[in-house]
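Recap from last week: sequence in, structure out.
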Amino acid sequence: MKLMTSAEKALARKDFGDVWENKMARSILILVPLVMVLVLPVFFLSLLLNVPMDKMNGMEQMLKLLPPQAAGLDNRQSIFYLMTNLICPMFFLMIPLMSASVSAACSFVGEKERGTLETLLLTPMSVRKIFKAKVMGCVFLSAVTTAGSFLLFSIVMAVGDVLLAMPFFLNWNWLVLFFLLSPAVTVFGVVFMALVSAKSKSYVESVQTSGYLVLPFVLLFTGQFTGLYQVGAILLLWISCALFVADFLICFFSARLFTPEKLLQ
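Predicted structure tokens:
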């Protein structure tokens, strides 16, 4: 059974072109991943390799955040471990969330701005198929961006692990984050933007709205620095399951609200 018909694939390809031609969307899709998985980790690793550990403030407090499995690491390795497992997951999740939100905003709200929505609704495709093609196209684009970013991030971390003589960074936390939480976040970003597209007047307004989606993840990961809890694989698994349920519900309501009457208001 085909996931998409030829007409749906054609609409998805048109959306890819629209996203690429939009300077703001193109910039976000390129710059956000590069900053999150290349620039920031390389900058931090360079500091770690060149700054003497006795010059670093708050070392004792940071070492208290180490889990039992990180016992035995020296100070430099411990800081790199904390960066890899406490800070970088937050940076990485920004990629599927932002790429999904930006591409969905360009795909759904962009039709209004470009004045092509009425023409699209007059095509032989049903409204339900238009919704499906746009959602699947945005999810695919975000998934490719996320997968490429993870490959680049893995290379950077592997180099850091070799330089610091540490085991490869990939653990259960990262496996759950990449294979379950990232897809759940991607679908959530796309269907959430589809849900708010009927009320959004412009693409920029939609992108600004998506900024609120980032806040819960920032609070979740930065809250670890209080020492009250740690984000492990089990917690990430529960969050992924909850998000998949939310994805299903929001997708159901978004599809019901994706009607010509709502879109042309």
